[in-house]
Amino acid sequence: MKSSSYNKSKKNVYFAFSGDNLNSAHINLLIKSNKLGNVIVGLLTDKAINEYKDIPLLKYSQREIIINNLKFINKVVPQEDASYIKNLRKYKPDYVVHGDDWKKGVLKKYRDEVLKELSKYGGKLVEYPYAKNIKYENLGTKRNIHELISGRTSYLNRLLKTKSYLRVIESHTPLIAKMMDNLKVKKGKKYNEFDAIWSSSLTESLIRGKPDNQAVELTTRIEALSETVEVSKKPIIFDADNG
User: Fold this and answer.
1) 195 belongs to the catalytic site
2) Cα–Cα distance between 243 and 228 in angstroms, integer?
């Protein structure tokens, strides 16, 4: 159970993050924030996170439970956008705490917004050295965890609710599915990739030299689907025709 209570006599500290893949660097920043005053965590929603990187492993409600039970946090509020502006204007914290890694890169524009907004009422940005020894990208195999937590259908549903559009590619063989599962294109600091695979009756018929008139039995297509599932962790949209 969270033990920290809100103290109106203390200054307010705003610390925003995803709360996903919680590690020692996050904990250290939260402890330092707690020494400055009441800690208000702006917990980024899936939508906010997806503005600059992939959606997190855990749903907002799951992350909220975890963060809400850390003893050095006084309040957890949703941050609906990657930009801090709405919450800064609402809570007007005395301090905003962040690692110094956002001085350049994809997050720099949000840092500039924070500095500008804080200057309007005398707030202060407090930055601590970025923990370079923490390898965030190696904390686990993301899709394997996704599958264990909620399954492909649930994950596809989260993607539909979070992203403005999805990248879906047709795959008619396990080899193509495997290739698409590992294909990533880097844009800035964010990696773009296909969100799901589409299993098409047309292409599966064509690779067997048959017309797309349900000449391929459903059992054959299910077997092909099973082979794809074995090599890919992505959600699969299955065009089953009469199935």
Assistant:
1) no
2) 18
pLDDT tens-digit series, residues 191-213: 788 999 998 888 888 888 888 88
Q: 195, 137, 147: which is closest to 21 by C-alpha?
A: 137
Cα gap 29→27, rounded to integer Å: 5
The Cα–Cα gap between 51 and 196 comes to: 19
Rounded to two decimals, the pTM is 0.65
Catalytic residue among 81, 101, 212, 241: 212
